[in-house]
Design a protein that fits this description.
Elements: E1 2-8, H1 18-32, E2 35-41, H2 47-55, E3 59-62, H3 70-78, E4 83-86, H4 114-119, E5 122-125, H5 128-138, E6 143-145, H6 153-161, E7 170-173, H7 182-191, E8 196-199, H8 204-211, E9 216-219, H9 229-236, E10 240-243, H10 260-283, E11 291-292, E12 295-301, H11 308-316, E13 320-321, E14 324-329, E15 347-350, H12 359-363, E16 371-375, H13 385-395, E17 399-400, E18 403-407, E19 415-419, E20 428-430, E21 432-434, E22 436-440, H14 444-447, H15 459-471, E23 475-477, H16 493-497, H17 511-527
Helix pairs in contact: 6-10, 15-17
Length: about 550
Amino acid sequence: MKKIVFVSDFFADQVQGGAEIYDALLVQQLESKDVKVCKFNSHEFTDKHFKLYEKTGFMFLVSNFVNLSESVKKLMQIYSDRYCILEHDHKYLRNRNPADFKNFKAPREMIINQEFYRSAKQVFCQSVKHAEVLSLNLGIDNVTNLGCSLWSKEQLEIISSKICEKNSKAAIINDPNVIKGTKEAVAVCESKNIDYDLLPKAKYENYLSTLAKYETFVFFPKTLESFCRVLLEARMMGCKLVTNNLNGCTYEPWFRGLKGQDLIDYVDSQRDVVVTKIYDKVFETTNEESKDGDITVILNCYRRPYNLKMQVDAIRAQSVKPTQIWLWINYHEDNKDFDPSTLGVDKVFSNDFNWKFYGRFAAALLADTEYIAIYDDDTIPGKRWHENCLKTMKTHEGMLGTHGLTQRSHHSYDLKRVGWPSFNTEVERVDYVGHCWFFKREWLQYLWKEVPPTWDNGEDIQFSYCLQRYANIQTYVPPHPKDKIELHGSLLGSELGIDDKATSNNIAKSHQQFFSERDGCVKHAFENGWDTVNKIKWRN
């Protein structure tokens, strides 16, 4: 059985809005296709819910998501092939209204949620104009125009039954919401001497019965309506329309040629077409060929075994997949009951001792691929990180990482940070990198040229220093553009890396001791010829 978690701010039993009515009908239709649907209000849907349902094979369909937490959105972006967005309006804009901007193109500072849309498997839009404007503002191509809204057979039968003789007047919906343009519609009628009535809001059947009697429906919305159900309902009942260019349905190729019962029959025929489009896109297996790279990935298990599944999933989703994934386990009470077989990795090094930072680099000596990618246990890469590294290798061959550090003085903590913490648009040379390392396997020989000043700290400093000293190989951070997080080497660094299990925060070792050890590593490198970006020299 196919399974979907349907997430939205509200559902039809809570709010009777157009989006909620649409969603209720969609859920009903999906269930008729033997899809199991579990509904969650967005404010109640947590990281734990996502992980639980993802683990049990659910796909995720996100409707209105104003109340969805940022942490859930970030987590979904890691599992980009598992969620789709059903867009009802314009939640990619701060003001939710592209009509405020020339040609519907908003300035960059008005764009929000860009990566949430970009990372989605598919974004469903209500009309061709809706899809065009969303794509224009977000610069994405994972967009499907559904081409019609949804009405049930029962709703269409009601609409058909309301078709009747018309009076000579115009109807305007009296809606206090300013974006519905009641004031503008009244102004148009008065300027053209059109006799009109303001229709109060009413229950669905009563509203249809009243509207059907009018010769003309006047509607001047002040926002771009993604589809505009009310306009189409008026046309299905034979009303003439006086409106503006802010109704998505009017841009559909079938709109001008259909009205009355012909339009009702067409809308009826599109119900299964729309639902099938959504079903097929949500459940399709991607046809995108993911290239295999000559890469061995090595993960580390110490005090955060709960992050490993997410790491493995993100690495398997890479646009350039590794040849193998290995797991190095340093013994700790926190992982003694963890079962690595649940991950399905290719090789496991299970140790009854804590080899700390250098052990995983020793394991890398056993790989026979051209490249090695080693990840800290708080580092979840974007789906094009390996691709980004390989591209960077062609222009800046060297040690690569997602968190670059450049010494601003001789102290280990006085640093400029480059990469995911600060967003660099170009390749940038740094003194050393952390969180993940991407390098050629043959370069491991240089890490072992010297006994490090301590085995307890500073492997990141030592490796870059040795590469530079013995092979003239520099260290770089590939581009981490703010609006393309799929290229980033770390997506949840702030969320996963700052806890009491981080070595720098470990209660077993004081901050003073930790940074004193790192100062010793920096001093050793300086005293042996480390040529830093800023030409810093050691001084006591």
